[in-house]
Design a protein that fits this description.
The chain is α/β, with parallel strands linked by helices. It is about 35% helix and about 20% strand. The protein is built from 15 helices and 11 strands.
Length: about 350
């Protein structure tokens, strides 16, 4: 794949000076999750570079429950939002947190389009070494934080636990849920024995817990990860296989990992930056081209950014196509293709 490294000069070549100028004074509203994670990093970077390029002023509201943000975006009340791919699927089908929408869910889901993909890390189990959790089976009878009270993260965390251990919340372990903003305290206050949430590499969640003692990360066992049952989960919208070598994870003393071969394996969560379908072709193209032109700058903003699938256009690794109906905005397709990337027909 071709990488663009000439910054905003390249954007001008792609779009033309007149297109940039035409979009210069646009004010856009956006939602994202709490600070410290991938969705927050990517959209805050976008806000910076769009302003620097004179394309748009992006007004970002942080700490949002993205289940609610999808509804807000689909109804045209905001312009953009970070989004796990599973949520538009559930809205389209009128399932899970969108069950009350019924048939209206499909109409709402049809109102959104993607600009670019990334992932929010992979679901892993981690705990203080003092908790004596050395395998997924060790959470039997334990108290485990597994996400916010509702939304895709909780669904996926429960699924990751079942796949790796066979355990169900309530029957085998006690699940604890709280809003993301409360997680920092939970990681260090001793109220839970372990945590199953998306991990980046490295993860601020692990380093926060490290302030209370040495931390152990538990990878999904290789035989389980490669089993037919586990591989089937990657057929579901937004689920992607994630594998990262220990030496690429960015940790030092005080953090260890349980893995047969030094590779972290887990259920990855595919994200996209979504916009309303009515965003103009030129604006969607300008925003996406700016993202592409500043990928190297974004990767340098955080130690985990090189491991979040930026510029990954393979639909299987980006979580698109298959049962997911999420498509790229036509303007985004033009930006990616003009930058030398291949966009799968099923994602157009």
């Amino acid at each position: 794949m071709k990488k663009i490294q000439n910054g905003f000069f390249t954007i001008l070549l792609i779009l033309g000076l007149s297109s940039i100028t035409a979009n210069a004074q646009v004010n856009l509203s956006a939602h994202t999750a709490s600070p410290g994670g991938v969705p927050h990093l990517t959209i805050m970077h976008l806000s910076d570079v769009l302003g620097e390029a004179g394309i748009a002023n992006l007004q970002v509201t942080e700490g949002q429950t993205l289940t609610n943000s999808l509804m807000t975006l689909a109804e045209g009340k905001i312009d953009m939002s970070a989004m796990p791919i599973i949520l538009p699927f559930l809205l389209d089908k009128g399932r899970g947190p969108f069950a009350k929408q019924g048939d209206k869910g499909a109409e709402l889901a049809a109102n959104v389009r993607a600009l670019y993909p990334y992932n929010a890390g992979g679901f892993g189990l981690f705990a203080l070494e003092s908790a004596n959790i050395k395998s997924w089976k060790d959470i039997k009878g334990k108290t485990i934080f597994n996400g916010p009270p509702r939304g895709a993260a909780l669904v996926n965390a429960r699924q990751a636990i079942v796949l790796a251990s066979g355990y169900k919340e309530g029957d085998d372990y006690k699940g604890v849920q709280a809003n993301w903003g409360q997680l920092a305290n939970i990681l260090v206050d001793g109220s839970v024995d372990g945590v199953v949430v998306p991990l980046t590499f490295p993860s601020a969640r692990v380093t926060v817990m490290q302030s209370a003692g040495n931390v152990r990360i538990i990878s999904t066992p290789k035989d389980i990860f490669e089993s037919e049952a586990y591989q089937k989960v990657f057929n579901a919208p937004g689920n992607i296989p994630l594998q990262v070598k220990w030496e690429d994870m960015g940790y030092s003393d005080g953090v260890s990992m349980v893995s047969e071969d030094g590779v972290f394996r887990g259920l990855g969560t595919a994200f996209v930056e979504l916009v309303h379908k009515d965003m103009s072709f030129d604006l969607a193209k300008a925003i996406t081209a700016t993202h592409i032109a500043t990928l190297d700058k974004l990767k340098a903003k955080s130690p985990f950014a090189p491991n979040i699938g930026l510029g990954q256009m393979d639909p299987k690794l980006a979580g698109l196509c298959g049962p997911s109906k999420v498509k790229y905005h036509a303007g985004a397709v033009a930006a990616w293709e003009e930058a030398g990337y291949k966009v799968a027909d099923c994602a157009k």
